[in-house]
């Protein structure tokens, strides 16, 4: 028997409830859920996290479409100074799901920017978890390189002497490093 962990933000939707009509849900994460998600995503804090989602059966076969909008107030560490960087994430999303619980994810995932209908995500053994779906969307929306305004790395030292107009040779730079 497999061990299935419950995600930090779980809002299961039974696949049997899905039809052609939209099922609309509003998700508001609790303090404990936000703290757990902040830990999972390496955030300093997740002060607010909410989403509105709409789910329905879509296309041929056993598929579902989940569309929605995620809004979050996040605090990340600056990649240069490690100071807190506050930001607001507010974006829409659309995701296709394969409702066959025996479906396995593809071994390789090809992401094609600008193409709305990539391969559908498989639904877990307990159905479609709207909470986990919006948590994954938040992870994709986070700034991978947050910076405090004005933060910059110190200029790199050029061992080849480009600051001299590039007149030095590489071996001269190595010779300068050798103790005398």
Give structural notes:
- By secondary structure, the chain is an alpha+beta fold.
- The protein has one domain (12-153).
- The protein is 17% helix and 31% strand.
- It has three helices and seven strands.
- The chain has a five-stranded mixed sheet with strand order 2-3-4-5-6, with helices on one face. The chain has a two-stranded antiparallel sheet with strand order 1-7.
- 18% of the residues are buried.
Relevant terms:
180 residues
Count of helical regions: 3
The whole-angstrom Rg is 24 Å
Q: How many E strands?
A: 7
Tell me the β content: 25-35%
Name the shape in a single word.
Answer: elongated
- Terminal CA distance reads 68 Å
How many domains is the backbone divided into? 1
Q: Which residue ranges are poorly predicted, with pLDDT under 50 across at least 5 consecutive positions?
A: none
Structural class by sheet pairing and helices: alpha+beta
Tell me, rounded to a whole number, the average pLDDT. Answer: 82
**Helix percentage range:** 10-25%
Q: How do the strands of the widest beta sheet line up side by side?
A: 2-3-4-5-6
- What is the quaternary state of this protein? single chain
Pattern of helices and strands: EEHEEEEEHH
In brief:
The protein is an alpha+beta fold and 180 residues long. It contains three helices and seven strands, in the order ββαβββββαα.
Task: Describe the secondary structure blueprint for this structure.
Elements (H helix, E strand, L loop, with lengths): L11 E2 L9 E6 L2 H11 L3 E13 L5 E15 L6 E15 L22 E2 L5 E2 H12 L28 H8 L3
Parallel strand pairs: 5-6
Antiparallel strand pairs: 1-7, 2-3, 3-4, 4-5
């Amino acid at each position: 028997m497999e061990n299935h962990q419950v995600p930090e933000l779980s809002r299961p939707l039974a696949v049997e409830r899905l039809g052609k009509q939209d099922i609309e849900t509003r998700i508001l994460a609790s303090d404990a859920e936000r703290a757990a998600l902040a830990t999972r995503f390496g955030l300093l804090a997740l002060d607010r996290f909410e989403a509105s989602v709409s789910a329905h059966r879509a296309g041929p076969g056993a598929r579902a479409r989940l569309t929605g909008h995620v809004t979050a107030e996040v605090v990340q560490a600056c990649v240069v100074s490690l100071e807190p960087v506050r930001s607001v994430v507010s974006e829409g999303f659309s995701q296709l799901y394969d409702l066959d619980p025996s479906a396995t994810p593809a071994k390789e995932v090809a992401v094609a920017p600008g193409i709305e209908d990539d391969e559908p995500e498989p639904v877990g053994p307990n159905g479609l978890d709207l909470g986990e779906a919006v948590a994954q969307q938040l992870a994709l929306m986070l700034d991978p390189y947050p910076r405090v305004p004005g933060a910059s790395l110190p200029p790199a030292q050029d061992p080849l002497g480009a600051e001299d107009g590039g007149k030095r040779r590489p071996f001269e730079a190595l010779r300068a490093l050798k103790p005398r």
